Amino acid sequence: MVMSDRIAIMREGKLEQLADADGIYTRPVSRFVAEFMGEVNLFDVEGTAQGGLHGRGVEVHVNGQMEDIGISLAQGERGTLMVRPEFVRILESSGTSDFIVRGILRAEYALGSRIQYEVEAADGSRLSVEKLREDRYRGAIGDEVVLGWDLDSTHLIRED
Protein backbone atom coordinates (compact mmCIF):
# COMPACT_ATOMS: atom_id res chain seq x y z
CA MET A 1 0.00 0.00 0.00
CA VAL A 2 2.92 2.36 0.67
CA MET A 3 4.47 2.04 -2.78
CA SER A 4 1.30 2.13 -4.87
CA ASP A 5 -0.69 4.99 -6.30
CA ARG A 6 -3.40 2.50 -7.39
CA ILE A 7 -4.22 -1.01 -6.26
CA ALA A 8 -6.14 -3.70 -8.11
CA ILE A 9 -7.85 -6.41 -6.09
CA MET A 10 -8.71 -9.51 -8.09
CA ARG A 11 -10.95 -12.43 -7.21
CA GLU A 12 -11.07 -15.64 -9.23
CA GLY A 13 -9.43 -13.88 -12.19
CA LYS A 14 -11.83 -10.92 -12.21
CA LEU A 15 -11.19 -7.34 -11.13
CA GLU A 16 -13.03 -6.71 -7.85
CA GLN A 17 -11.86 -3.11 -7.22
CA LEU A 18 -9.33 -0.65 -8.62
CA ALA A 19 -8.60 2.44 -6.49
CA ASP A 20 -5.94 4.24 -4.49
CA ALA A 21 -4.82 2.65 -1.21
CA ASP A 22 -7.05 4.85 0.95
CA GLY A 23 -10.10 4.10 -1.18
CA ILE A 24 -9.49 0.35 -1.07
CA TYR A 25 -9.03 0.41 2.72
CA THR A 26 -11.84 2.80 3.70
CA ARG A 27 -14.41 2.28 0.91
CA PRO A 28 -14.24 -1.31 -0.32
CA VAL A 29 -16.89 -2.30 -2.86
CA SER A 30 -17.43 -5.80 -1.43
CA ARG A 31 -17.03 -7.93 1.69
CA PHE A 32 -14.21 -9.75 -0.11
CA VAL A 33 -12.17 -6.54 -0.56
CA ALA A 34 -12.94 -5.37 3.00
CA GLU A 35 -11.68 -8.64 4.49
CA PHE A 36 -8.75 -8.87 2.07
CA MET A 37 -7.45 -5.50 3.29
CA GLY A 38 -7.09 -6.59 6.91
CA GLU A 39 -8.99 -6.79 10.17
CA VAL A 40 -12.54 -5.52 9.81
CA ASN A 41 -15.89 -5.59 11.61
CA LEU A 42 -18.87 -6.32 9.36
CA PHE A 43 -22.60 -6.20 10.15
CA ASP A 44 -25.43 -7.37 7.91
CA VAL A 45 -28.10 -4.67 7.79
CA GLU A 46 -31.42 -4.01 6.10
CA GLY A 47 -33.21 -0.76 5.26
CA THR A 48 -36.31 0.12 7.30
CA ALA A 49 -39.55 1.87 6.32
CA GLN A 50 -38.43 4.97 8.24
CA GLY A 51 -35.24 5.29 6.19
CA GLY A 52 -32.99 3.83 8.87
CA LEU A 53 -31.03 0.63 9.20
CA HIS A 54 -31.66 -2.48 11.25
CA GLY A 55 -29.07 -5.16 11.86
CA ARG A 56 -28.63 -8.15 14.11
CA GLY A 57 -26.37 -7.27 17.02
CA VAL A 58 -25.85 -3.59 16.18
CA GLU A 59 -27.91 -0.68 17.50
CA VAL A 60 -28.21 2.31 15.15
CA HIS A 61 -28.62 5.69 16.87
CA VAL A 62 -28.33 8.00 13.85
CA ASN A 63 -31.05 10.46 12.92
CA GLY A 64 -31.33 11.45 9.27
CA GLN A 65 -27.66 12.13 8.51
CA MET A 66 -26.89 8.75 6.95
CA GLU A 67 -28.15 9.67 3.48
CA ASP A 68 -25.82 12.69 3.40
CA ILE A 69 -22.77 10.41 3.36
CA GLY A 70 -24.25 7.56 1.31
CA ILE A 71 -25.26 5.24 4.13
CA SER A 72 -28.87 4.46 3.38
CA LEU A 73 -30.89 1.55 2.07
CA ALA A 74 -34.44 1.33 0.77
CA GLN A 75 -36.87 -0.68 2.86
CA GLY A 76 -35.94 -4.37 2.60
CA GLU A 77 -32.69 -3.65 0.73
CA ARG A 78 -29.67 -5.39 2.28
CA GLY A 79 -26.10 -4.35 2.77
CA THR A 80 -23.11 -4.65 5.06
CA LEU A 81 -21.87 -2.00 7.49
CA MET A 82 -18.10 -1.92 7.83
CA VAL A 83 -15.98 -0.34 10.55
CA ARG A 84 -12.27 -0.87 11.03
CA PRO A 85 -11.08 -1.87 14.55
CA GLU A 86 -9.14 1.37 15.06
CA PHE A 87 -12.38 3.40 14.91
CA VAL A 88 -14.26 1.35 17.52
CA ARG A 89 -14.04 2.42 21.15
CA ILE A 90 -15.06 0.86 24.44
CA LEU A 91 -17.62 3.27 25.86
CA GLU A 92 -17.79 4.45 29.44
CA SER A 93 -21.11 3.76 31.19
CA SER A 94 -22.49 7.19 30.23
CA GLY A 95 -21.05 7.16 26.71
CA THR A 96 -23.12 7.40 23.54
CA SER A 97 -22.32 6.74 19.92
CA ASP A 98 -23.96 6.54 16.48
CA PHE A 99 -23.56 2.75 16.45
CA ILE A 100 -23.47 0.49 19.51
CA VAL A 101 -22.71 -3.19 20.09
CA ARG A 102 -22.96 -4.87 23.48
CA GLY A 103 -20.76 -7.84 24.35
CA ILE A 104 -18.20 -9.58 26.54
CA LEU A 105 -14.48 -8.85 26.40
CA ARG A 106 -12.91 -12.22 25.51
CA ALA A 107 -9.25 -11.47 24.77
CA GLU A 108 -6.54 -8.82 24.80
CA TYR A 109 -3.47 -8.97 22.56
CA ALA A 110 -0.40 -6.75 22.94
CA LEU A 111 0.82 -5.63 19.50
CA GLY A 112 3.72 -3.38 20.48
CA SER A 113 2.42 0.17 20.57
CA ARG A 114 -1.17 -1.05 20.10
CA ILE A 115 -3.57 -3.31 21.98
CA GLN A 116 -6.18 -5.39 20.17
CA TYR A 117 -9.30 -6.60 21.96
CA GLU A 118 -11.66 -9.36 20.92
CA VAL A 119 -15.28 -8.88 21.98
CA GLU A 120 -18.03 -11.46 21.67
CA ALA A 121 -21.28 -9.70 20.77
CA ALA A 122 -24.64 -10.80 22.14
CA ASP A 123 -25.39 -12.57 18.83
CA GLY A 124 -22.18 -14.64 19.09
CA SER A 125 -20.19 -12.74 16.47
CA ARG A 126 -16.65 -11.59 17.25
CA LEU A 127 -15.49 -7.99 16.93
CA SER A 128 -12.04 -6.44 16.99
CA VAL A 129 -11.13 -3.20 18.73
CA GLU A 130 -7.68 -1.69 18.38
CA LYS A 131 -6.31 1.04 20.64
CA LEU A 132 -2.98 2.69 21.29
CA ARG A 133 -1.29 1.31 24.39
CA GLU A 134 -1.89 4.53 26.32
CA ASP A 135 -5.65 4.24 25.63
CA ARG A 136 -5.78 0.69 27.03
CA TYR A 137 -9.02 -0.59 28.55
CA ARG A 138 -8.67 -0.70 32.35
CA GLY A 139 -11.11 -3.56 32.97
CA ALA A 140 -10.64 -7.31 32.75
CA ILE A 141 -11.29 -10.23 30.42
CA GLY A 142 -14.91 -11.33 30.96
CA ASP A 143 -16.23 -7.80 31.50
CA GLU A 144 -19.47 -6.78 29.84
CA VAL A 145 -18.58 -3.91 27.50
CA VAL A 146 -20.37 -1.52 25.19
CA LEU A 147 -18.62 -0.71 21.92
CA GLY A 148 -19.35 2.36 19.87
CA TRP A 149 -18.25 4.19 16.75
CA ASP A 150 -19.27 7.23 14.76
CA LEU A 151 -21.16 7.57 11.52
CA ASP A 152 -18.19 9.10 9.69
CA SER A 153 -16.09 5.98 10.48
CA THR A 154 -18.69 3.69 8.90
CA HIS A 155 -18.89 2.48 5.32
CA LEU A 156 -21.88 0.78 3.70
CA ILE A 157 -21.18 -2.04 1.26
CA ARG A 158 -24.21 -2.56 -0.97
CA GLU A 159 -25.12 -6.10 -1.95
CA ASP A 160 -25.40 -6.89 -5.63
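[next item in queue]
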Amino acid sequence: MALIPESHVDSRTAPIYTQYADVETTILAGSGEIQLHFLCAKPTLAEAQRRVDELAEK
Protein backbone atom coordinates (compact mmCIF):
# COMPACT_ATOMS: atom_id res chain seq x y z
CA MET A 1 0.00 0.00 0.00
CA ALA A 2 1.50 3.28 -1.03
CA LEU A 3 0.82 6.90 -0.06
CA ILE A 4 -1.57 6.01 2.77
CA PRO A 5 -0.64 6.85 6.38
CA GLU A 6 0.19 3.85 8.55
CA SER A 7 -2.66 4.61 10.95
CA HIS A 8 -5.18 4.53 8.08
CA VAL A 9 -3.84 1.22 6.83
CA ASP A 10 -4.14 -0.21 10.32
CA SER A 11 -7.69 1.05 10.82
CA ARG A 12 -8.73 -0.36 7.42
CA THR A 13 -7.05 -3.76 7.80
CA ALA A 14 -7.43 -4.45 11.55
CA PRO A 15 -11.03 -5.71 11.18
CA ILE A 16 -9.63 -8.41 8.89
CA TYR A 17 -6.36 -9.42 10.57
CA THR A 18 -7.72 -9.38 14.13
CA GLN A 19 -9.96 -12.30 13.15
CA TYR A 20 -6.79 -14.42 12.91
CA ALA A 21 -5.57 -14.80 16.49
CA ASP A 22 -2.97 -17.34 15.37
CA VAL A 23 -1.31 -14.91 12.92
CA GLU A 24 0.97 -12.15 14.19
CA THR A 25 0.66 -8.99 12.09
CA THR A 26 3.27 -6.25 11.82
CA ILE A 27 2.82 -3.03 9.89
CA LEU A 28 5.97 -1.33 8.62
CA ALA A 29 6.05 2.15 7.10
CA GLY A 30 8.88 3.71 5.16
CA SER A 31 9.98 5.17 1.83
CA GLY A 32 6.44 5.98 0.70
CA GLU A 33 5.01 2.50 1.24
CA ILE A 34 3.33 0.42 3.91
CA GLN A 35 4.09 -3.29 4.29
CA LEU A 36 2.02 -5.80 6.21
CA HIS A 37 3.99 -8.80 7.48
CA PHE A 38 2.23 -11.94 8.69
CA LEU A 39 3.79 -14.65 10.86
CA CYS A 40 2.11 -17.88 11.88
CA ALA A 41 3.36 -20.90 13.84
CA LYS A 42 1.80 -24.25 12.97
CA PRO A 43 3.05 -27.85 13.20
CA THR A 44 4.15 -27.72 9.55
CA LEU A 45 5.34 -24.98 7.24
CA ALA A 46 2.59 -25.86 4.77
CA GLU A 47 -0.13 -25.33 7.42
CA ALA A 48 1.36 -22.00 8.47
CA GLN A 49 1.69 -20.86 4.86
CA ARG A 50 -1.93 -21.79 4.10
CA ARG A 51 -3.12 -19.77 7.09
CA VAL A 52 -1.05 -16.72 6.14
CA ASP A 53 -2.15 -17.02 2.50
CA GLU A 54 -5.79 -17.14 3.63
CA LEU A 55 -5.35 -13.88 5.50
CA ALA A 56 -3.32 -12.21 2.75
CA GLU A 57 -6.00 -12.97 0.18
CA LYS A 58 -8.51 -10.93 2.18
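[queue empty]
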